[in-house]
Amino acid sequence: MLAEFENCDIYHLSLAGGAARLNDGLADIAINWGGGLHHAKKSEASGFCYVNDCVLGILELLKVHQRVLYIDIDIHHGDGVEEAFYTTDRVMTCSFHKYGDYFPGTGDWRDLGYGPGKNTSINFPLREGMDDDSFRYVFKPVIQAIMDRFRPGAVVLQCGADSLTGDRLGCFNLTLRGHASAVEFVKSFGLPTLVLGGGGYTMRNVARCWTYETSVLLDNKIPDELPYSDYFEYFGPDYRLHIAPSNMENKNSRTYLENVMGKLLAALKELPIAPGVQVQTGAASSDQTPRTISAFLEGGDQADPDKRDVEGHADAKEHAAELYDGEKDVYDGQDTDSGAPGNAGSVQAAAGSGGGASSAVPMEGGTTDADGDQELS
Ligand SMILES: [Zn+2]
Q1: CATH number attached to the domain at 2-269
Q2: Which of 35, 124, 268, 294 has its CA 20 to 30 A from that of 5?
C-alpha cells in the first residue's frame, strides 16, 4: 500500500504543479503523460485509477478560471470526472468513447448533467472501428460548439492512447494523426491547457502517440524514422513513428454519427452562453477549495466520505483487464505492473522543457512476444 500512496503523492504533486504553472501564467501548456486517471471516484479505485488527477487539476484551475472544459479521447468513458462535476455549470466534461457492452458501462448521450450542471456533460457514444475521418468529423463541430457556448478559461485534455488502432484492449482504428488532430484542434484555441495521458495497452504505440503529440504541442516537426535507442527493437519491423490503420470495419455510419451529433449540438444550444456568474473561487496554489465544489469534496451527498454506496454499481461493466482473485485471475497473481495504463513513471513537464513519452516504454521484468508487445508475465 505504501507504494500506492507514494504514487498518489507523485500524481498529486506533478498534477498540481502543472495546473499551478498554468494558473501563474508560467506556461501555456502543461503535459503530464503519467496522469489522466479518469476512472477513479471520490472513494473508489476503478480501472487502474486510484487518484483522479484530472479532477484535482480541474479543481486547481477553478481557483483562477470561472469555467473549465474537460475533454477525454480515451476509448473508455471519463466517468470519474463526469461524476465529480455532474451538477455544476463551472465544468463542462466532454467524452468520446466506445459505448455498449464495454467498461465502464456509462456515457450515454442522454447523460447531460443535472441541476445547474444540465447540458454541461457531453457524451459521444461510439461503436467499434472508429477511424480518423469519422473522428475528425465529430470532434471538431462538438468542441467548436462547446467553445462558442461554454467559453472556458482553461482546458484539461485527457489523451488516452487506447483509442489507437491495434490497441490490446481498445477496438478503434485511429492512427497517430487522427488521435493528434484532437490535440491540434484544442491547441488552436490558445487557452491554458493541461494535457494528460490515460489508457493505452499496446505500449510501443503509446510511446509513439505521446511522443508525436508532444511534438505537435511544441510545434516541433519530428521525422517518421525513429532514432536508435535502447528500446529500438520494440518498434520493428518498420522502425517508424507513424502507424497504419487496420482494415477493420467502421461500425459508426455517417447517419449514426450525424444523429448523435445533432442531439448533442441541440443540448449545447440550450446552455446559456458563458454560464454562471463571476465568483471569488479561492487563492491560486492555496488549499482553499472553490466554493461551488466544496460540498462535493466534503461529502455533502453522504455522511461518511470514506464510505461509498456501491449498490448502484452492481451491474457496472468490468474493465477488460480487471484483476481478480482465484481462478478468474488470468495473470496468476504475478506482477502486473506492465498492465498499468502507460503509467510506468510520472512525467510532468511544462511546454518547452521536454515532456517526452518515457513513461510508456516497456519496463523490465516482462517478456516480449512476436509482435513486440510486452506480455503480462
Ligand atoms: Zn481507457
Answers
A1: 3.40.800.20
A2: 294
What predicted TM-score, i.e. pTM, was given to this entire model? Answer: 0.76
Check 38, 39, 65, 76 and give the catalytic one: 39
Q: Can you give the residue ranges of every domain in the chain?
A: 2-269
Distance 25 CA to ligand 1 centre (A): 31
Strand order in the sheet with 193-196: 121-126, 91-98, 68-72, 154-158, 193-196, 29-32, 348-350
- Kindly give the distance from the C-alpha atom of residue 222 to the centroid of ligand 1, in angstroms, as a whole number: 26
169-to-31, 77, 88, 107, 113 alpha-carbon distances in Å: 24, 14, 32, 18, 28
Percent of the chain with pLDDT over 70: 69
Q: Tell me phi and psi for residue 340, to 5 degrees.
A: -65, 155
pLDDT tens-digit readout, 75-85 = 999 999 999 99
Mean pLDDT of 66-82: 98
